[in-house]
Amino acid sequence: MQIAVISDTHLPRGARRLPDACVERLKGADLILHAGDLMTLAVLRELESLGPVVGVHGNVDDAEVRAALPPSASIEAAGATIALIHDAGPARGRLARMRRRFPEADAVVFGHSHIPLLEGTSDGFQIFNPGSPTERRRSPSHTMGMARVEEGRVSFELIVLG
Predict the structure, then answer these.
(1) For position 162, what pLDDT does the model report?
(2) Whole-number Cα distances in Å, 43 to 17, 64, 80
(3) Could you tell me the pTM of the whole model?
(4) What CATH number matches the domain at 2-160, 3.40.50.2030, 3.20.20.210, 3.40.50.1000, 3.60.21.10?
């Protein structure tokens, strides 16, 4: 199973839009995960036109998005459990904190910082932040992620969009 992973799209804002390379990966995925900060319900509906979406709301999402999406979610995909949350808190202790918060998960996807991150434990638990395809902030590039899930195992790849 191929899963496209995005967060912190912060749309609409001026002429900003999802990069074409991001849209192509979203269209080609079996599932799209969005870890919050879409901003408006129209952005969620646009993503849903590209494929099935599981998302959570972030700290800048409007009331409609907050009503449509939960603050955290968990999905089963090809035998693996992936949890989503927008803000995973401070970097110090994050991996252990997410493990405690989502004990049933094989991986946790989060956003908020716009800084890509992949960390894991010796038993295979992982946390992944795909960065942002539209607002890189302190990161050198716009990014997104792809996850491959096979036989209960999740592997993440960071995609640099430019």
Answers:
(1) 73
(2) 10, 11, 27
(3) 0.96
(4) 3.60.21.10
